[in-house]
């Protein structure tokens, strides 16, 4: 379901308006649809968009995260809280909303939590926990998660029983980024050395076969 709305600002100047701006800011701010927001999240432009809109949609974003519990909005609100974008910084609450989005199966939330636990960003580093999040995101075709998952496997984390799936997902991935394409080829070659030849052949099957 797509949620959209329009917020009008006309009489008073927002407290966050930039110095030198005038009150000619009678403009409509379009609330993001779920699909549009997911596209922004995948492109990592969601926080920039909130700032670009001069933080005018903060209450609407919070309501869609807290009341309607829309996964993409839970992720957005969590990121805003975690890094203090347009609101006071509250990392613990931010991680909580990211977990809510992850529990609803949002790939970007699963990937980000996996990345955070892998690096120790905001949370205590826990690479085994990172594997759990990244594996879920990788199964949902999140390429960044697939790459990070194999990186952790090559570092010795995770279970060898998962190598076939990880290889399968990454082998069938598609990217137009030449550098990323070479990186993937290198990781696959390294992962092959840890796998039985029969397992490698099985992992090279087409997707959905």
Describe this protein's structure.
57% of the residues lie in helices and 4% in strands. With 209 residues, it is mainly alpha-helical. Helix 6 (107-119) runs parallel beside helix 8 and helix 8 (143-154) packs parallel to helix 10 (178-192). The longest helix is centred in the C-terminal third of the chain and has 15 residues, at 178-192. The two termini are 30 Å apart.
Secondary-structure topology with pairs:
Blueprint: E1 6-9, E2 27-30, H1 34-42, H2 46-52, H3 58-66, H4 71-83, H5 91-103, H6 107-119, H7 127-139, H8 143-154, H9 163-171, H10 178-192, H11 197-203
Antiparallel strand pairs: 1-2
Helix pairs in contact: 3-4, 4-5, 5-6, 6-7, 6-8, 7-8, 8-9, 8-10, 9-10, 9-11
Give helix and strand order, one letter per element, not per position: EEHHHHHHHHHHH
Poorly predicted regions are 1-18, 20-26
Q: Helix count, per DSSP?
A: 11
Query: What is the residue-averaged pLDDT?
Result: 89
The largest sheet has its strands arranged as 1-2
Helix content: 55-70%
For the secondary structure, the number of strands is 2
**What spatial form do the alpha-carbon principal axes imply?**
elongated
**Rg over C-alpha atoms, rounded to the nearest angstrom:** 20 Å
**How widely separated are the two ends?**
30 Å
Secondary-structure-derived class:
mainly alpha
Characterize the main sheet: 2 strands, antiparallel
Question: Per DSSP, what share of the residues sits in E-state strands of 2 or more residues?
Answer: under 5%
